[in-house]
Amino acid sequence: MASISTSNYHKYVELQNVSSSGDPASAPEGGIYLFASGSSAAPNTARLYMQNEGGSVTDLSKTLDIDAFTALGGAGLHQTQDHFVFSDNGTEKKITFSNLQDAVFADVSGDATIAAGGALTIAAQAVENSMLADDAVGADELAANAVVEASIVDNAVTLAKMAGITRGSIILGDSSGDPSLLAKGSAAQFLQSDGTDPSYVTISGDATIAAGGALTIANDAVEQAMIADDAVGADQLASSAVVTASIVDNAVTLAKMAGLARGKIIVGDASGDPSALAAGADGKILVADANGDPSWTTVSGDATLSAGALTISANAVEGSMLNSNVAGSGLDYGSNELSVDVSDFMTNGANNRIVTATGADAMNGEANLTFDGSALAVVGTVSGSSTLHAVGGITGGSTLAVSGTSTLQAVNAQALSATTATLSGKLSSSAGADFASAATFSATIAASGTIQAGSHIIAGGNSIVDGGSNSSITFDGSGNTAVVNAMTVGGGYGSSGVTISSAGALQADGALTIGADGAGVNFKAFGGAANEHMSYDAGNHVLYFVNGSSATLLTLGGDATTEYALDVANGSDNINKVRAAAFVTYSDESLKSDVATMNTALDTVMSLNGVEFTWNDSGERDFGFIAQEVQNVLPRAVHTAADGVQGVDYSRLTSVLVEAVKAQQVQIEELKTLLKK
Fold first, then answer.
1. What is the pLDDT of residues 35-52, one digit of tens each?
2. Do residues 535 and 546 touch, judged by C-beta distance below 8 A?
3. Which of 125, 429, 470, 621 could form an S-S bond across to 447 if both were Cys, CB 3.0 to 4.6 Å?
4. CA–CA separation, 190 vs 174, rounded Å?
């Protein structure tokens, strides 16, 4: 059993478990001695010592707990009166603040050293560029001639940085390649280079410059080669300056002439000069006399002329006035008379002619318009101002022009021009057809050129065929149009256009726009399996992805505050998950205010309940939180969809967990400190 006893005069206390001896020189096994030694008189050397059973003596005044002392409360340490405790190879000693500083200073080396007392000396060449702060070196720190060429940044020397330039002088490179000053020039001199160096010279020759910059051109100095095109205008020409030699041949056009009264004519007079012939009276014509001079004369005799209309007098055309070439097929000429030769167009079969071209009277002469009993053939141009009707076909070798209405059964012409046309037969044209109004065809249209209609074209066969007689565009008679095979717009796909194949594929080089700004429309694109599709709801601004079971897998967009920008359907398959290299959350400092550290993170985490569970839809085991429970603790980490289903933003829990771990670590460190004591 332990015992406590004191020595004589109470100089020491004996603490031991089992002991029959009170000798402090030999502590019994299992016991210690506490004893005092020294004097309390100044200087106070009284100390309390502890001796263990092995004989080791410890000065208890030298054991201390630094945390048990009062803080200094400032930086005012005395160099010699304030001490620090340290261990000198296992032996505790004290040292003054001054000696401690010197000991630390002695270990400083490298770019600077510190002498005893604190004087710091920077080594030569020790201060490098990276050690200098911006704007650290000012004018006072720069030595004379310290700034050399390599020290100056390109384009750094501005006008404000230069000095010592006398008024009017110019900086230029000299023969040594150094900048030098060129003295200012005399009044009116200008700078001219000799190919090497510039110098001031005086202007002479065709012009001179006076002081102040006034340039004077010498008399007769401006030659033709010096005058630019269009330099001389009306203001620069003197009166009567333009003579005959100045005017280029054929230069005087109608627009250049003036002073000619209405109806007058310029003619050459007897002197060879132009003169104006007065306007003639109504119906007069210009006739030259024996000298070649023209004059206005009244038409008389077999015909008269009035206001441009020539009237042949009655019985004025006599047989002697007729030429033999006035006759043709069906007409004969002889003895100054014209007679009708009916045999020319009644007995010639397929070559029966109604009108023939000008030429010899021959059975096979060129015919302008022929008729073989079924077809009317046009070799030249046929025109009419009213209606042209034909039961058979009309064949035109050139142009068939009708300004009225054409009601035709068939037309075969190089070119057809009509106001309107109704055709029950075939239109064949090697050039083209142009209709100022509407055209109706119940048969075939064939034209190598362009068919144009001012209003519309009616195709009675309900189809438009290509050159291979294949129907390219069909009509069902109810206003619907179909393109039989592929169709291209512009140059087609690949050539800045659009191509639509017969299989329904659309390829376009340009942008595809659906709907209009502020007036969007719905659209749908189907997948490979039944019921799979992607659809856009313009009213809600949402894009839906639907699987073959008609279930929505994914939605993008939305206008309502309860809709998510990206919403993936719940499920355990990969199609219900989102994979990416990273998911980045907005967290920039500039986006936030009233920032404060969490003080209750550990309590918050202790209030959360992690659980294991089974998903109702898939039967798969999983782990996580219950959204309703998390909402009671961290309501801002829980979100509710439009259908009422709640979800947890797991990423936002990270900040809570971090602060909770930090708070827990503080508790751990405090416990470790207590255990050490």
1. 666 666 666 666 677 776
2. yes
3. 429
4. 19
122-153 pLDDT tens trace: 888 878 888 888 888 888 888 888 888 888 88
Question: Which amino acid, 648?
Answer: V
d(CA 550, CA 614): 25
- Residues paired with residue 458 on neighbouring β-strands, in sequence order: 440
Dihedral, CA of residue 263, residue 265, residue 266 and residue 268, to nearest 10: -150
CB atoms within 10 A of CB 576: 14
pTM higher than the cut 0.70: no
Tokens linked to 102: 């010197």
**Is 3 in contact with 27 (CB distance < 8 Å)?**
no
CB atoms within 10 A of CB 115: 12
Q: Where are the domains of the chain?
A: 3-63, 323-365, 599-674
pLDDT reading at 404 higher than 80: no
Rounded Cα distance, 72 and 611, in Å: 53
Q: For the purposes of burial, counting CB atoms within 10 Å of the CB of 380, is it exposed (0-12), middle (13-18) or buried (19 or more)? A: middle
Please enumerate in sequence order all residues whose Cβ is within 8 A of that of 393, keeping only pairs 6 or more positions apart, or say none.
374, 375, 376, 408, 409, 410, 411, 412, 425
Here the tokens at position 565 are 């920008």
Record: fold of 599-674: Arc Repressor Mutant, subunit A (1.10.10)
Structure-block tokens of residue 367:
């015919």
CA distance 231 to 225: 12
